[in-house]
Design brief:
Oligomer: single chain
Structural class: mainly beta
Shape: globular
CATH class of one domain: Mainly Beta
Keywords: Membrane, Transmembrane, Transmembrane helix
Mean pLDDT: 85
Number of helices: 3
InterPro entries: Quino_amine_DH_bsu (IPR011044)
Number of strands: 28
Distance between the termini: 91 Å
């Protein structure tokens, strides 16, 4: 190769290298694909209880008025406590007297006592009853009467009556046992186990609800294939009174106040549902809601507002005074909520994600399970405050909250995790 050709080759190679380096340096980086926002996490797409405005992807978590910061601090960890050491069938919270933990005094001074919220609950496997004070969880066995495989349990007469529901040995017939719990005396040994004695209600009771003062229950049972009977049972004298009958047999009841019981049709995603108020004095039915597919309901204590959901799990508040319905910015079921005593606030377990499905059927049948956050909703102005996300707590569990209840002062929220039926306490203070 001649010297002239060799120089030309070197120049060409240098030019090609410079061109390649220039191309790589000035090339624009490809944009990262944006989130389409088509997922089922309602909270990540909308600001609860306000008018939602479109925002560029990726979407951000919702704003709320609580000032809550999702950081698993020591305070947050202490807010949530698992109460029961076993799956339970039902629970109640009531006030119980106890001796104060004070230094020893002279015998002439009367022991000081205090009244503390107390939990009492039924173990699913054995029917044994356990209890603990709310402020200091120390689970203690209360009864020794064995009733295997209790599916549902209710308490009445401020924790002194228990109603247990379970299947007979034929695995078909529903049996309902009403038990009287022996009184517990102040200063009595904590190791004393009590026998529960009682009586049975008619077979195959379809539904039970407890009166607000826990002195009575209302229960539904079939008189025939084409007729259902509703009766009340007074725990003080065991008196039963028939108050309702209907040719329609698929009802769910709630007892929001002493004068009225709500009756709602059993929900299904493709079936229009209806809700009625039943006046116990007049024995009359008043229609509240109707023609809503997948209808589930929860009436306020004063009958002024009804919380209800549909087959998309959208949550609404209906005013019985003016007939208006307001949609809330959350998706959950009313039975995952509880009204505050003054009807001003609602506490709800709200799923963070909701998979596509037929609701509420899929949730009832166990085809889907939720991971909930706990929210406090102002029933007047519809604002919401995020109380806690159990999943962010170190070692926290995913919770699908049901059977929500409050203590009398609304310092604590109690619930059962549908995933395993364990009882939990959430400190609201």
């Amino acid at each position: 190769m001649s010297k002239r050709n060799f120089v030309l080759l070197i120049i060409i190679l240098i030019t090609v290298v410079i061109a390649i380096l220039g191309f790589l340096y000035f090339r624009t980086s490809p944009a990262t694909p944006a989130d389409s926002g088509t997922g089922t996490n309602f909270f990540s797409q909308f600001n609860p209880f306000g008018v939602s405005k479109p925002t560029p992807p990726p979407v951000k978590p919702p704003a709320d008025v609580s000032g809550y910061e999702p950081v698993p601090s020591e305070t947050e960890i202490q807010k949530l406590t698992k109460v029961s050491g076993m799956p339970i069938a039902g629970f109640t919270v009531f006030i119980k007297e106890r001796l104060k933990d004070v230094p020893a005094t002279t015998p002439a001074i009367k022991p000081l006592t205090e009244f503390i919220p107390t939990l009492r609950y039924v173990e699913k496997a054995t029917g044994n009853i356990y209890q603990t004070f709310v402020d200091k969880i120390e689970e203690r066995k209360y009864s020794k009467t064995i009733i295997p495989k209790v599916y549902e349990a209710y308490f009445g007469n401020r924790g002194e009556i228990v109603v247990m529901r379970y299947l007979k040995t034929d695995d078909r017939t529903i049996e309902t046992f009403v038990g009287n719990l022996p009184k517990e005396y102040l200063g009595e040994s904590i190791n004393t186990l009590r026998e529960v004695k009682g009586y049975f209600l008619p077979n195959d009771i379809k539904d039970i609800s407890v009166s607000p003062d826990t002195s009575k229950i209302f229960y539904l049972f079939n008189l025939s294939d084409n007729n259902i009977i509703g009766a009340t049972l007074n725990f003080s004298d065991n008196k039963k009174i028939q108050v309702f009958d209907s040719p329609f047999t698929e009802w769910l009841s709630q007892w929001p106040n002493t004068k009225t019981i709500t009756l709602s049709t059993k929900p299904s995603s493709a079936v229009p549902g209806y809700m009625y108020l039943f006046d116990l004095d007049k024995k009359s039915l008043i229609k509240v809601l109707g023609d809503i597919s997948g209808l589930t309901t929860l009436m306020s204590h004063n009958n002024k507002m009804a919380l209800y959901g549909n087959n998309s799990l959208s949550l609404y508040i209906y005013s019985t005074d003016n007939g208006n319905s307001d949609i809330l910015g959350v998706k959950t079921l009313p039975e995952k909520c509880v009204w505050g005593k003054a009807n001003d606030f609602i506490y709800c377990a709200v799923p963070k994600f909701i998979d596509v499905g037929k609701y509420p059927d899929a949730w009832y049948q166990g085809e889907v399970s939720f991971s909930d956050q706990f929210w406090k909703i102002d029933a007047k102005n519809r604002n919401a405050s995020l109380i806690l996300d159990p999943a962010i707590i170190v070692g926290g569990e995913e919770i699908d909250g049901i059977k929500l209840a409050l203590d009398g002062n609304e310092n604590y929220l109690f619930f059962v995790n549908k995933k395993d039926s364990f009882l939990w306490k959430l400190d609201l203070k």
